[in-house]
Amino acid sequence: MSVDQTQDGQRPAAGRTRIQERNRAAILEAGLAVFSETGFSGATLDRIAREARLSKPNLLYYFPSKEAVHTALLENLLDAWLAPLRALDPAGEPQQEVLAYVRRKLELARDYPRESRLFANEVLRGAPHLSGVLGGELAALVEEKAAVLEGWMEQGRIARMPAKHLVFSIWALTQHYADFETQVRAVLGEGHDPFAEAGEFLDTLFRRLLVAP
Q1: Segments of the chain with pLDDT less than 70
Q2: Same structural domain, 168 and 186
Q3: Model confidence over 58-109: pLDDT tens digits?
Q4: For residue 184, what are the contacts with CB-CB under 8 A and spacing of at least 6?
Q5: Is residue 5 in some structural domain?
Q6: Cα separation of 164 and 133, whole Å?
Q7: What CATH number is attached to the domain comprising 37?
Q8: How far from 40 is each of 34, 77, 122, 197, CA to CA, in Å?
């Protein structure tokens, strides 16, 4: 997932030169590395500047504080984070739609573990930069998709259960593999692909859970 980068052949954002785009992208990439490793409280502008291979005054030209770097990262993350749930199709086959959502969430954890830890750390801090989104856009999206799930339950197409807690369980069981990746790999040992094994396990787990009586 891009952290506000441009690719070759693309024009930079309005008002920015290509050098400014590269520097901004380098700062956000460095911020992602530092925040996902140390959390917000452990991060410093000095370390982010070192990671970005820029001077601190140069960094401050783009972002006036570490809060600004952190907020920009979270804003860039949100669309990608909500996309898997948005893709749940009310017109699809219920069990397959839920299983596909589980797979998409696990792939997101596999491909973007630092972003997952950034999000988790923000929530653990009380979500000071995301409270509006959590209680607004995210809550509305979960409400919408929970209504879809409840409709399928009413029709007897999947087992009855609290729909929002089903969504919570999918979040917990997929993001765990990113947020606690070090622990997972240490317990499994060498020679194991935790995400491949998790994919098979979670598919079996939710397939059985969803079967209507």
Answers
A1: 1-15
A2: yes
A3: 999 999 999 999 988 988 888 888 999 999 999 999 999 999 999 999 999 9
A4: 176, 177, 194
A5: no
A6: 17
A7: 1.10.10.60
A8: 9, 16, 8, 32
